[in-house]
Design a protein that fits this description.
about 100 residues; mainly alpha; two-stranded parallel ribbon; 5 helices; globular
């Protein structure tokens, strides 16, 4: 595992239950200026192996990135189970539920 991947994993694991973060913010906290796609790749390939709370990572605009039939429903269910309010169209208020808010 690369040092960059390790930093991304650490930042994902740091998102507490009942909060969300964005792909962009995870990568920035890991020291990558344009690493949102790398964060997506880490989540896609390592979530199960490292028990990453993948459901807590969403787009910076508060929107769930997954589409219908791609895990969107599960992500919404998991977030709501942690008390996060998710709108009917899959949007989370980052000012209320984002890390640091």
């Amino acid at each position: 595992m690369t040092e960059t991947t390790q930093r991304i994993i650490e930042q994902i694991l740091a998102v507490p239950k009942g909060k969300v973060s964005s792909y962009r913010d995870i990568s920035a906290r890991a020291g990558l200026s344009n690493g949102a796609r790398q964060t997506v790749r880490v989540l896609h390939s390592m979530s199960e192996k490292y028990a990453l709370p993948w459901h807590r990572i969403i787009r910076s605009n508060g929107q769930i990135a997954l589409g219908e039939g791609e895990g969107r429903e599960l992500q919404i269910t998991l977030l709501r189970g942690e008390g996060v309010e998710v709108s009917h169209d899959g949007h989370v208020d980052m000012s209320r539920w984002g890390v640091g808010s």
